[in-house]
Amino acid sequence: MPRRRALIAGNWKMHKTAAEAAVLTTEIRALLPAEPEVDVLLLPPYPCLQTVHGALQGDRRVQLGAQDCHWEDSGAFTGEVSAGMLAAWCQHVLVGHSERRQLFHESDGTVRAKLEAVLRSGMEPILAVGETEAERRSGATRDVLVRQARAGLVGLPREQVLLCTVAYEPVWAIGTGAAAEPGDIAEAALILRGVIEEAASGDAAEVRILYGGSVTPESAPALLSADGVAGALVGGASLSAPQFCGITAAASP
Ligand code: PEP
Question: Active site residue: 99, 106, 169, 187, which one?
Fold first, then answer.
């Protein structure tokens, strides 16, 4: 199985009203080449999904996803959104973003349950993993990555592992302007590739590993050339169409 082409995903976090989301989507569509050489994915807030879906007008260059979901299919979970509700609009759902893990105290077990809910609903999960600054300083990066990736992937049927994407997002690099070094990203990708192969019981070249953390059009060429990396999860820069499309251009072979 050949490697899948690079994926550039824009995580809009809790930004953009529906009206603003429609404008940004239209701007991105206008700036993308007619035939992008990378997969492009937008992850707007839940209330913008329907609007962005409409603004895409069936544009096959851009996929749509959500930033999170609940782990149950339905029930008394006030304020929550199930994967099944997202499936009408989304092909992908991000799980385990460090903001969910840190600010909302999501455990590895919770992230795994969410990832399984995404798969149950016929979508493709993006599993975010990454060490904090303190973990990096104490030399725990490998242990953290292995623990988070194993908790997310090991024990899934091989065909489900192959539907996953893993995003390496060092927590200290998110939103700080201080991206990781390409050598460190390559080392993390190698560690994650080992877990992916363990989970898939063999080669799983189609499972992409993304890098996320202060990616800009300027830093993208070096960051995305790190060995083992096939794209980026972009936060801040995804809120600007020129910046986001600049990153997609930088990721194109
Ligand atoms: C993120 O939140 O996933 C992210 C990578 O953010 P930023 O690009 O702003 O560092």
Answer: 169
Ligand 1: distance of its center to the CA of 114 in Å? 21
Residue 19 placed within a domain: yes
Residue 66 belongs to what domain range? 7-251
Nearest C-alpha to atom 8 of ligand 1 is from which residue?
A: 235
Q: Which of the following is catalytic: 70, 92, 97, 124?
A: 97
Q: Cα–Cα distance between 42 and 208 in angstroms, integer?
A: 17
Query: What CATH number is attached to the domain comprising 47?
Result: 3.20.20.70
Encoded amino acid at 250, one letter: A
Q: Report, as an integer, the average pLDDT of 29-47.
A: 97
Instruction: Report which ligand 1 atom has the smallest distance to the Cα of 169.
Output: 5
| Rounded-to-10 torsion of CA 129, 38, 93, 214 | 40
Contact 147, 108 (CB under 8 A): yes
pLDDT confidence of residue 253: 83
Structural domain count, the chain: 1
Do the domain assignments include residue 231? yes
Bridge pairing between strands 165-168 and 209-212: parallel
In a domain, 212, yes or no: yes
**CB-based contact 182:222 (threshold 8 Å):** yes
Q: What is the pTM of this model?
A: 0.97
Long-range contacts of 19-24 (CB under 8 A, 24+ apart): 19/51, 21/45, 21/48, 21/51, 21/52, 21/55, 22/51, 22/52, 22/54, 22/55, 24/239, 24/241
Inside any domain, residue 2: no
- The two tokens of residue 249 are 């251009």
